[in-house]
Amino acid sequence: DALQNEYLHLLTEERQLQAKVDKVAGLPAITPDKKSVEVVLNAGLLLDYERSSEVGAVGIGLYRTEIPFMNRSSFPTETEQTLWYSDVLKAFPRKTVTMRTLDVGGDKSLPYFPIQEDNPFLGWRGIRITLDHPEIFLVQVRAMLRANIGQGNLEIMLPMVSGVTEVEDAIRLINQAYFELKSEYDEPLVKPKVGIMVEVPATIYQLDDLAKKVDFFSVGSNDLTQYLLAVDRNNARVAQLYDSYHPAVLRALNHIASEAQRHLVPLSLCGELAGDPAGALLLMAMGYDKLSMNAHNVARVKWTIRHVENKRVKQMLHHCLTLSTSRQVHSYLNEELEMMELGGFVRAGM
Ligand code: PEP
Ligand code: MG
Question: Could you give the 3-state DSSP secondary structure of residue 292?
Fold first, then answer.
């Protein structure tokens, strides 16, 4: 009984916290000293974005196209895909929708495209598959470009990039799809911005080369953490080692932000870290322009950002970057958030 009461009590407090933060859902994510960040959604199903105006996110920072591919028994046609993408783009008129090209392999498989490998996370995944199967890539990109006719809010993002050649090859195919459609359609065709996910550590050391090829970077902190720490993101046995607040990950994220600023490349982050209030604060202080997260976290992140001075967060970041273990980072951040009366965001209860 005591345990049940304790949990009921925490549940009530959690609901109160949500009701409190929901009040700022429609307001911008801006600190009292006027530092602002764009807050957008991660999505893959209609359910993820149909309430976007209520949850307060303007635009989609990561549309996972593999999700609609999963729930079927064969590859979708170009026309089917055009209809899906068109629904998403129309739901956000004049707001950017960043669509990621098919990211299967690793932990995500299609029932009609089985892949058997000993090391799937280091194997045939994301852009590696679609470059080996340009027919899949071209159909998808053609569908995206067709859906964008009359909308103009599409951006294309490439997953699992590990080098410049992949980007060059993908851009060549995107251009091919564009010129094919240009000759087939009379309507004006917009050339979308093309960016890459920064999630394979190799890209961190080639940002200067990559900056010359693409329009934006978006950090996939879920995979970047996995690959930087060599910890399978889905293996419970090593789950305590998988931590995006590991000092090496934080320093890598900070380095990416400095490089993106130096090369004037717009930078976002679309892993789970962006939707975590403490993570969102650190990323804002590092200089990330855009944070993309699940609908559930939008109001929490906005509330947090609206209640902390950027000056203070910069000091927090500075200190975090001097720490040497994940545990130190967590206890320091928890203490700081408690002091700022934001403890309810880092533990259960208000
Ligand atoms: C990531 O790796 O952080 C990411 C956003 O992509 P996914 O979780 O779909 O691999
Ligand atoms: Mg990823």
Answer: strand
